[in-house]
Amino acid sequence: MIRPFIASHRAYLRVVRASAWYDLVVTAGFATPWTYVLLHGALSSLGGALGLGVLPALDPMQTLYANLMGSVVVVWALLRIVEPLPVHGLLDGVARTLFAMWQSYALAHGVTRLLWLFFVVEVAFGVVQLLPWWRARTDITGEPAGPAGEHPLSIEAQ
User: What is the rounded distance in angstroms from the CA atom of residue 19 to the CA atom of residue 6?
Assistant: First the structure.
């Protein structure tokens, strides 16, 4: 009895694509040293204006890690925009869980509270993308779902 989810398969792919567009817009500025300088200044000003705290001063190592993260996330976002697949939603949900864990660690250790804005979105997209997979792992009787080909989010179900 996992068939009802198949009807919302297209809706799930829209969520996968929406999360990709969010990632592209939010992380594109992290992808190069030149755009990161501008983004760093803008985020720091926003955090200061909202009373949430400013970012630490720029240094080459911070810029390197920001550029690495930005580059990888931009490529991952482009993949999900061009070819959204259910498995991309699953993997993105897992990645967002990891991001949210590290963001909560940073928040617990005193980084700017501006990070809460990003944390909330990570958790929201993570839950929305993982919940169908969690629900589909068993049918309504509590029995394990059928073979992988019968999974409502599998490629075969497209």
Answer: 20
Q: How many CB atoms lie within 10 A of CB 3?
A: 10
- Give the separation between CA 5 and CA 86, rounded to whole angstroms: 12
Determine the pLDDT at residue 3: 42
Measured CA to CA, the distance from residue 115 to residue 46 in angstroms comes to 11
The average pLDDT across 40-65 equals: 96
Cα gap 19→17, rounded to integer Å: 5
Q: Are 69 and 27 spatial neighbours (Cβ–Cβ below 8 Å)?
A: yes
With 60 as the cut, is the pLDDT of residue 144 above it?
Answer: no
Q: Is 22 helix (H, G, I), strand (E, B) or coil?
A: helix
Q: Is the pLDDT of residue 139 over 60?
A: no
- In the structure encoding, which two tokens stand for residue 14, read together? 């829209």
